[in-house]
Write a structure and sequence with these properties.
Elements: E1 2-4, E2 15-17, E3 42-46, E4 57-65, E5 77-82, E6 88-95, E7 97-101, E8 106-114, E9 117-127, E10 140-150, E11 156-161, E12 170-175, E13 185-190, E14 199-204, E15 215-219
Antiparallel strand pairs: 1-2, 3-15, 4-12, 5-11, 5-13, 6-10, 6-15, 7-12, 8-9, 8-11, 13-14
């Protein structure tokens, strides 16, 4: 099932799936510098490209919405799984997200795994001043003040969601442009009327369009 967002800046339109699909967005590119300020940190996991003018695909992504973000559709959150190759302490999380309409804000968290879907959050942050959907290529960065200890070979999740003050948020988590071959474990959260049951539903990213959610986890 696909649905269409309201008219966006730059005469941009977008089709987004409420549960587990992908979007297609024709739009004019607007240049903006990417965030490459953390070169001295260890990259625990990342699918962000290394070139400044396009670290991710800015015109296609999965919806992240509050319960009032899209009329006729339930709230929808997203998560992507990863497993570090060595014991690390995560201190920075970067995500490529953009705002289409509504409240300017998203919740970001680093979560444990719970039988193949996101479990308890071990670190949280708040994102604001989000870039407009259809512009390239700001990366939202969250600093984990206390750090988060990660164990090698253990699955964790980066989660982008909304909170009680972001009921009308209508945003998107953009896709990477570095891997259009491999499939990755992701998850979508929506209530029971989304058609996939209540809570988190795991799915594999779409290898046809290379739709893995764009993100990075850095640390020590």
């Amino acid at each position: 099932m696909k649905w269409k967002m309201p008219a966006l800046p730059l005469a941009t339109s977008v089709f987004l799936s409420a549960c587990g699909g992908h979007s297609i967005t024709p739009a004019a590119q607007v240049a903006a510098p990417a965030n490459f300020a953390h070169a001295k940190l260890v990259t625990i996991v990342s699918n962000l490209a290394s070139y400044r003018s396009g670290p991710y695909w800015a015109f296609e992504g999965s919806p992240v919405t509050g319960p009032e973000g899209q009329q006729g559709f339930p709230e929808n959150w997203r998560a992507v799984a990863f497993s570090p190759s060595a014991n690390r302490t995560a201190t920075i999380i970067e995500v490529a997200v953009a705002l289409a309409s509504g409240t300017d804000g998203l919740a970001l968290s680093l979560n444990r795994d719970n039988k193949g879907v996101p479990g308890k959050a071990i670190a949280t942050a708040q994102l604001s001043n989000l870039p407009a959907f259809g512009t390239c290529c700001t990366i939202e960065t969250a600093t984990l003040a206390k750090g988060a200890s990660l164990k090698a070979g253990t699955r964790y999740w980066v989660v982008v969601s909304t909170n009680d003050s972001e009921l009308t948020t209508n945003a998107a988590w953009m896709y990477n442009d570095t891997d259009q071959v491999d499939s990755f474990l992701e998850a979508s959260y929506c209530p029971s009327n989304c058609g996939s049951g209540s809570g988190w539903t795991p799915y594999q990213s779409d290898t046809v369009s290379g739709s893995e959610l764009a993100y990075a986890v850095l640390g020590e």
